[in-house]
Amino acid sequence: GERAENSSITEFRVPFDKAEVDDLHRRLASYRRGSALPEHMGDWSYGINHTFLDGALKHWRLRFDWEAQVGRLNQYRQYRTVVAGLSLHFWHEPAAEDQPVVLCLHGWPGTVFEFHAVVDHLRGKVGTVVPSLPGYGWSDAAVREGLGPVEIADLLLLLMSRLGYERFFIQGGDWGSLIAQGMSRISPARVLGLHLNLFPVSGVRAALGTPALLFEDPVERRKLFPISKFVENLWFTTG
Predict the structure, then answer these.
(1) Contact, 132 vs 86, CB < 8 A?
(2) What proportions of the chain, in percent to the nearest 5, are helix, strand and coil?
């Protein structure tokens, strides 16, 4: 259920439980492979590629060092706070008084770790806030219907206020792009700049034809438009 509102901000460390990892290893070791056509063991024609799956299971069971990766995550300053009833997890490198701050928003399937190189590069030069979106990582999931990009945008505006940042830059990709756009529309005066690495094109013209003003090069136009064909190909190749 919802948590009682509490404006406190608490430090957080990613937990490591060896018993849980041992249990996972047992589950991976006891995996029972399904049947597959011999001539298609190494491709994806009839479901999962069994050669790929065998390698993935071996990697997670024998090669992946869970404790080391947890230690790597815990190198970053991270916290949790309750906003509108949801506990939100976030990385935070504070900005000095004369420094700007950048809010970095991941997408699906993603985590705060997408931004580890950015945080490392900007440390000491720019403040950064990297939240786990609701339902991702160590942030609470929604407890009722209706928590979409606009609602999450409002939550993150509240989070930034709680951290003392009234004006800031935003970087957003995938769902983070939609949330970032929502924040800039809800409170445009607070958003100093917006950088998106997914920018959806909408409208009947985009769906049915080629907006020539966007791409002068005909080769580039054919890569993306009409959007319906692009989306169809994206769906087919990614599932």
Answers:
(1) no
(2) 40, 15, 40
The position carrying tokens 């006891």 is 30
CA distance 12 to 26: 29
Segment (H or E) for 54:
helix 50-58
Counting DSSP H helices and E strands in the chain, the numbers are 9, 7
Identify the helix (H) or strand (E) that includes residue 159: helix 149-162
Instruction: Output the tens digit of pLDDT for each of the chain's 239 residues.
Output: 555 567 899 999 999 999 999 999 999 999 888 777 777 777 887 778 888 899 999 999 999 999 999 999 999 999 999 999 999 999 999 999 889 999 999 999 899 999 999 999 999 999 999 999 999 999 999 988 999 999 999 999 999 999 999 999 999 999 999 999 999 999 999 999 999 988 665 444 444 444 455 556 666 556 555 555 666 666 666 55
Q: What tokens were used for 193?
A: 């700049």
User: What is d(CA 20, CA 111) in angstroms, rounded to the nearest whole number?
Assistant: 21
Instruction: Mention every residue, 6+ apart, whose C-beta is less than 8 A from residue 221.
Output: 210, 212, 214, 215
| Rounded to 5°, angle at Cα 22 from 16 and 24 | 95
pTM of this structure:
0.79
Q: What are the structure tokens assigned to 203, written together?
A: 């409208």
